Automatic annotation (TrEMBL):
Transmembrane helix in keyword set: yes
Name the record gives this protein: C-type lectin domain family 4 member A
InterPro entries according to UniProt: C-type_lectin-like, C-type_lectin-like/link_sf, C-type_lectin/snaclec_domain, CD209-like_CTLD, CTDL_fold
Annotated source species: Cariama cristata
Keyword line: Lectin, Membrane, Transmembrane, Transmembrane helix
Pfam family membership, one: Lectin_C
Keyword field contains Transmembrane: yes
Entry's transmembrane regions: 39-63
Stored CDD domains: CLECT_DC-SIGN_like
Annotated PROSITE patterns: C_TYPE_LECTIN_2 (PS50041)
Gene3D superfamilies: Mannose-Binding Protein A, subunit A (3.10.100.10)
Length: 228
């Protein structure tokens, strides 16, 4: 009985170093098993990447062009011939204006060669998918003034009018901003019978607005540029 106990002790002493030695391979095995991923995992990752690629292609290439299939805007419906410029810096394909109109920033401008009252002028612009021009900045004012210098007309309607004397209103309801108004010297005269506003071309390149009677004058229509 006593010898049996001794034997057991010896075996235990011998075994424990062996167990210590055996520990590293066991942990190694364990590590190896953890690194081993399921066989389907690469497939799943590939599938997700593929779906991501399809999504990106759709967003960046297909979606912008599929807008062609949308309802054309009023402007698009009215004109057959267009002039387009590449819009690469803006990240879109082409920016287009109806043939015969000028392009500046995000608008197309049409300057008439016939004269109408202010109301008829606005109706004519609306009928072409645009409106009488709304001037929002010094840059826009300068572009238009410069462009008009090639022409011979005197007065060109813009989309500004007073319902009551001195209460200036833009056709698109943009709030009238005194500091972005470009009245010619001594204007507006604010007469009861002068409630429509023109660019007076002979006044030159900068401050050339004048309030006039709403009689027959030339007109400038503005429409948002069409991007495709
Ligand atoms: C606008 O005026 C132009 C030039 O007179 C004319 O050709 C066109 O038919 C008019 N459009 C509308 C909708 O009144
Ligand atoms: C009015 O116009 C000026 C000059 O363009 C601009 O700095 C200012 O922000 C405008 N104010 C409003 C209320 O739009």
């Amino acid at each position: 009985m006593a010898s049996e106990v001794t034997y057991a002790e010896v075996k235990f002493k011998n075994a424990s170093p062996a167990a210590v030695v055996e520990v590293p391979p066991e942990t190694k095995k364990h590590k190896q098993r953890r690194q081993k991923y399921p066989l389907w995992l690469p497939w799943l990752i590939s599938l997700l990447l593929l779906l991501l690629c399809i999504a990106l292609v759709t967003v960046f290439f297909v979606a912008p062009f599929s807008r062609r299939g949308d309802e054309p805007t009023a402007l698009q419906q009215k004109f057959m011939k267009w002039q387009c410029v590449s819009a690469v810096p803006q990240g879109k394909g082409w920016m287009c204006c109806p043939d015969g109109s000028k392009h500046f920033q995000k608008s197309c401008y049409y300057v008439s060669s016939d004269r109408m009252s202010w109301v008829e002028s606005q109706q004519n612009c609306t009928g072409m998918g645009s409106h009488l021009v709304v001037i929002n900045s010094r840059e826009e004012q300068d572009f238009l003034s410069k462009d008009l210098q090639q022409l011979r007309g005197e007065n060109y309607y813009i989309g500004l009018r007073a319902q009551n004397v001195g209460e200036w209103q833009w056709v698109d309801r943009t709030p009238f901003n005194m500091t972005a108004a470009f009245w010619r010297e001594y204007e507006p005269s604010n007469m009861v019978d002068q409630k429509c506003v023109v660019i007076h071309r002979p006044s030159g390149l900068h401050d050339n607005w004048n309030d006039v009677k709403c009689e027959r004058h030339f007109r400038i229509c503005e429409a948002t540029i069409v991007t495709v």
